[in-house]
Amino acid sequence: MGINCFLFLPLLFILVLNFFLDIATAQVAGFVSLDCGGQSNFTDNLGLEWTPDNQIVYGITSNISVTNETRQQYQTVRYFPADNRKYCYTINVKSRTRYLLRTTFLYGNFDNNNVYPKFDISMGPTRWATIVISDANTIESQELIFLASGSTVSVCLSNATTGQPFISTLELRPFNGSIYLTPYENQYFLSVSARINFGAENEDPVRYPDDPFDRIWQSDMLKKANYLVDVATGTDRVSTKLPIDIGKDEQPPQKVMQTAVVGRNGNLTYRMNLDGFPAFGWAYTYFAEIEDLAANETRKFRLILPGMPEISKAVVNIQENAQGTHRLYEPGFENISLPFVLSFRFGKTSDSTQGPLVNAIEINKYLKIDDGSFDGDVAASLVSSYESYDWAKEGGDPCLPVAWSWLVCNTDREPKIISVKLSGMNLTGPIPSDLTKLTSLEQLWLDGNALTGPIPDFTGCPNLKIIHLENNQLSGNIPSSLAELPNLSQLYLQNNLLTGDVPTSLLNKNLVLNYTGNANLRKGGSEGGHYRKIIIGLTVGAVALFLGFITSCILLRQRKKYPKTELKHRMPVMSNAATEAAQSFTLSELRYATKNFEKKVGSGGFGTVYYGKLNDGKEIAVKLLENNNVYQGKKEFANEVTLLSRIHHRNLVQFLGFCQEEGMDILVYEFMHNGTLKEHLYGPMARERGINWIKRLEIAEESAKGIEYLHTGCVPSIIHRDLKTSNILLDKNMKAKVSDFGLSKLAVDGTSHVSSIVRGTLGYLDPEYYISNRLTDKSDIYSFGVILLELISGQEAISNVNFGINCRNIVQWAKMHIESGDIQGIIDPVLGNEYDIQSMWKIAEKALMCVQPHGNMRPSMSEVIKEIQDAILIERGVQAAARERSSDELSRHSTLNMGSLDLCANDQDLMIDESFSRPGPR
C-alpha cells in the first residue's frame, strides 16, 4: 500500500534564531524541557526540570496570565515578528535515536490585541503543522515522533497569516526501544493524532512519571471532538490495582492499561476526528484482560471499520493472544488509510460470552520528510566558518520551508541557491571556496566587506550573471576564467588591491565591467576606452528612459483630460469562449457610463464598485478588480467571465459583461438600488426604515435559494466562500440577490476544494475550513447560519461591546442564550412584538445547526430553505388572521401560501444553461 503525503512549501524569505541545547545536561532521562520566555531553571510538580530560553537574542518575551493555569512554564511566551522570516530552535540529538518532540502554544493575549495567531511550524525543511489559535485560554499542542539522522534538529516558526508566531514550550523525549520502528521511518515522521486512555478515572492525562517517556495519554472523559463522542448503551468503566505485564520498551504505561471500557451489550461504538487526515497512518490498539473471567467465559470481538471488510474479519481474543490475564496485547497496523472522521466499532462474536474491552488507542499520521535543498551541505559548510556572525546562525535548511534572509532559492522540488547577498557583513579572510560549489548560482553579492586574497575560479557556477566584489581588499590578478562564464553580464571589481593586466577576454566580452580604484591594475588605453563606452551607453540609456517616462506622463495626463474614443469592435484581450458567452464593454464606454468612475458605491477585498448608466438608460454596477488579490493572469479572468456569464438565477445578481484593457480587469453587474442587507440591519439606514421580521425571512429565503442553486444547480458546483450580509443585495422591490458568487473560490483555486490560502471574512468564516484549508459547501452553510443570527438579532457578526466581556462573536453569544431557552435575549428590539415566537424559534434552532463546528453536522441549504419557508407560513398565517377573519380572505391567503412553496413559480426568472448546469442534487 503506497503512502501519499502532500507538503506545501512556503516561498517567503526567512530569518531564524539558533539555540543549541546539550541533551547531556538534562537531568531527567535525557529530557529537554524548554520554558520559552522563562527566566530561570525550575522543577515542576511532575519532577521535570525546565530550562529557560534566555540565551536567545531574537524574539520578545512576555508574561501572560490565564485563569486556572498555574504551571510556571505557561506563565510566559516568546513571540516573533509577523514578517517573511522564520525563527528556529536548534537542538542537539543523538543520531539514529528515536525521539518524541512536543511543542505547545498558550496565547493568553500576550500582545493585548486579541488577534488569534495562525502560523506554521516546521521540522527542519519539513512543514509539520499549522498552528491555529481559536481560544486565548486553550493550550494547542503538536507532537512528532522521528528518527534522528544527524546531530541536530531544528524546529522553526514562520509564515504568520494572522497575529504573531509564538511558542510556550518545546520538549524533547528520547525513546529506548523500537515500538515506533516502521519500514518508512527514513522517509516519514509520525505526527501524533490521538493517544487515548480508555476507562480513565478522571479527565487528567497520564504522563511522566507514570509514563517514563512522558507521552501524554489523554482521558476518554474529555468531551472533545478528537476523543470518544459516542459510546454504545451498556458501556462500563472497569479498572484494577493489580500489576499489568506491559513488557518492555515504549509500551503504554501500567496506569493506562489498568483501566478500560467494556461493552456489556456486545458493542463499543466510537467516532473521533483525526487531525491531518485523511491520510496514511500508524494505528495500534492496546488490550489487557483486567476482569477475572470464569473458566467457561470468553471475550472475543472484532474491530469493525466501515468500508474495510478485510480488516473487520480478524478476531481479537485478549487472553489467548496475551497468553494470560493482566498481560498486554497490541494488535495494530503499520500502514493504514484512515479518514478525518473515524467511525469504528468493537463487536463481540457470536461464540463470545463477554462484550468487547479496550484499554488504549494510539494513532499517528505519516508525514513525508522533505529531503531539503540541493545545496544544503554546501550552505552548512559555508556558515560553519562564520559561527560567530548573526547571519550564519539562522539554522535549519537554507531554502526550506523558506530561505535564509541572505539567500534566494529557486522553486525546484529540491531548491537550489540562486543568489547570495552578503553585502556589508564584515566578512574577512579569503572568499569562501564553498561559494564556487553552488552550481546554480546566478548572483553573488560580497561587496562592502574586508575580504582578502585572490578571486577564486567560478567556472563551477556556469549560471553566474552578476558578481559584486567591489569595496574589499582582494589582491592578485583578475582570473581570465571569469570570461568563460557564458551568462556573465555584470562584474564589479572596483576599489580593491588587484594587480596585473585586465584580461583581454574580459574586455572583449559583452558585459558591464568596472575595475576602477585598483591602483596597481594596468588598464591600458583600449581598456579605459571600453569602460568609458559602457558608462556612456548607460548614460544615454538613462537619458532615453527619463525622456520616455516624461512623455508617458504627458500622454497619461492628456488621456485623463480627454478620454479616448475606442471603436466598438475593438475587443479586449480575452479567450474566444469568454467573448462568445459575455458582452464585452470598452473602457471608454465604462468611463463614460461612470463619469470616469466618479461615484463609488461599494468596496471589498476584491475591488471597488462604481455606479454607472449606459446609453440605453440601464443602471449598472462596475467593479474594478484588484489584480494583485484576485487574478493571476488573463486565463483566470477569462475562465471567471465564462463561468459568470452562464449562471442565471433570479436570486443571484445578474452579470452583464466585462472589460479587460490597459491592465484593468473589470466586471459589470446589474445595479441594486437598495444596497446591502447589512445597511438595513444596522447603521443609519436601519434606524430610518428597519425591515420587519417577515421581510427578513423573505430575504433569507431568496438568498438561500441563490446559494442552493450554486451548490446543486451548477456543474461544477460553486462554493461562494465569502457569504455575508454585505454580499446580499436588495433591488428596488427589496428582493434579495447574492453577489460575488464564486469569485474568490474559482479565481484562486480553480476546481480544487483544497485551498492554500483561506479566504473569507472574520465572523462568517467556517472554523473547520480555517483550520484544515478544506473547502466544502458546508462552509457556506456556516456563513449563512451567521446571517440568520444577524437577521434575528440585528447585531453584527463581530463586536467588542455588544456581546459581553467573554464574547466577541455572534455565534458564541447567541448559542449561550438559545441553549438556555432565553431567545428573547437575542431578538432585535426594532422588531417590537411583530413576530410569532414559533417562527423565531424555528430560525434560531436552524441557525445553530448551521454553525455546528464540523461540516458533516450541518444541514444542506435545501433543509435550511424548508425551515425558512415553514417560518414564513407561520408568520403569514398570523398576519392574515390579524387582518381579516373572513373565510374568503383565509382561502385566498391559503393560495398564496402554496405559491410561496413553489421553487420555480416564475419560469422565466430561472434560466439554466443545460450544457453547463443541472438542477437538483449532484
Structure write-up:
The chain is an alpha+beta fold. It folds into six domains: 168 residues, Galactose-binding lectin (Jelly Rolls); 178 residues, Jelly Rolls; 99 residues, Alpha-Beta Horseshoe (Leucine-rich repeat, LRR (right-handed beta-alpha superhelix)), CATH 3.80.10.10; 40 residues; 95 residues, Phosphorylase Kinase, domain 1 (2-Layer Sandwich), CATH 3.30.200.20; 231 residues, Transferase(Phosphotransferase) domain 1 (Transferase(Phosphotransferase), domain 1, Orthogonal Bundle), CATH 1.10.510. 22% of the residues lie in helices and 25% in strands. The protein contains 18 helices and 45 strands. Strands 1, 2, 3, 7, 10, 13, 14, 15, 19, 22, 23 and 26 form a twelve-stranded mixed sheet that branches. Strand 42 and strand 43 form a beta hairpin. Helix 8 runs antiparallel to helix 12 and helix 11 runs antiparallel to helix 17. The chain is flat and about 105 Å long. The two termini are 31 Å apart. The N terminus and C terminus are likely disordered.
Summarize the structure.
By secondary structure, the chain is of the alpha+beta class.
Helices and strands in order, then pairings?
Blueprint: E1 32-35, E2 42-43, E3 49-52, E4 60-63, E5 76-79, E6 86-92, E7 98-105, E8 118-123, E9 126-132, E10 140-147, E11 152-162, E12 166-167, E13 169-174, E14 188-197, E15 218-219, E16 235-239, H1 254-257, E17 259-263, E18 267-273, E19 279-288, E20 300-304, E21 315-317, H2 318-322, E22 328-329, E23 332-338, E24 341-348, E25 357-358, E26 360-368, H3 376-384, E27 407-409, E28 417-421, E29 428-429, E30 443-445, E31 450-453, E32 466-468, E33 473-476, E34 490-492, E35 497-501, H4 504-507, E36 512-514, E37 520-522, H5 524-561, H6 576-581, E38 583-584, H7 587-593, E39 600-604, E40 607-613, E41 619-625, H8 634-644, E42 655-661, E43 664-670, H9 677-681, H10 684-688, H11 693-712, E44 728-730, E45 736-738, H12 743-749, H13 767-772, H14 777-793, H15 810-819, H16 837-850, H17 861-883, H18 887-900
Parallel strand pairs: 1-3, 14-15, 28-30, 29-31, 30-32, 31-33, 32-34, 33-35, 34-36, 35-37, 38-42
Antiparallel strand pairs: 1-13, 2-3, 4-5, 5-12, 6-11, 7-10, 7-13, 8-9, 8-11, 10-14, 14-26, 16-17, 17-25, 18-24, 19-22, 19-23, 19-26, 20-21, 20-24, 27-28, 39-40, 40-41, 41-43, 42-43, 44-45
Helix pairs in contact: 8-12, 11-14, 11-17, 14-16, 16-17, 17-18
